[in-house]
Amino acid sequence: MSRTPIEFEQAHRRFLALYNSTAHYGLLHEKFAPPIPLEVLGAAKGRLYSLEELGRKFSRALFPRTTNGYGCVTLHSYHFYVEEGLPKTKVLLWVYGHELRAVFENVVLAEYYCRYDLRDRQVKDIREGRFSPHDDFASKQGSLIPLNPQESLVPRQIPNIGIPLSSSARIAAIA
Fold first, then answer.
1. Are 5 and 54 in contact (CB under 8 A)?
2. What contacts 81, CB < 8 A, 6 or more positions away?
3. Quick check: 61 and 92 in contact, CB under 8 A?
4. How confident is the model at residue 168 (pLDDT cuts 50, 70, 90)?
């Protein structure tokens, strides 16, 4: 199972190589010789897309964020834990199916259940999180205020009080 964008791309390339070099029942039944898709299709490429266009189509589910001093991030009015040992560090939030994954250097740090609204292009209903503590990212000083599992895992939705707040004021309002 692929857990990061790079692993997904590698798995997809392996699948295509295997698929294009394996004899398929439909081609055997139709008596194609050889019954291998790559040989049958030859130079046919399907639709080709530029890297920029592919980036536009798939980037809507990638959200770069910077953790605060406690290893938390904010996304679409949700404030949630990623990794305490990575304060003020850029991480990538990646929506995959119904999971929102926080990734740093190709390591999945935290996963939360979410719903991605294609129309609004927003992540909604973030909940039921789990995280994977990594010794490589653990704070060298230890934790000043230890978080219990509920505080670490449950995201908090930032209350809308009708006054536009900067992102730092929103984070301070819920801390």
1. no
2. 70, 71, 72, 110, 129, 131, 147, 151, 152, 153, 155
3. no
4. very low
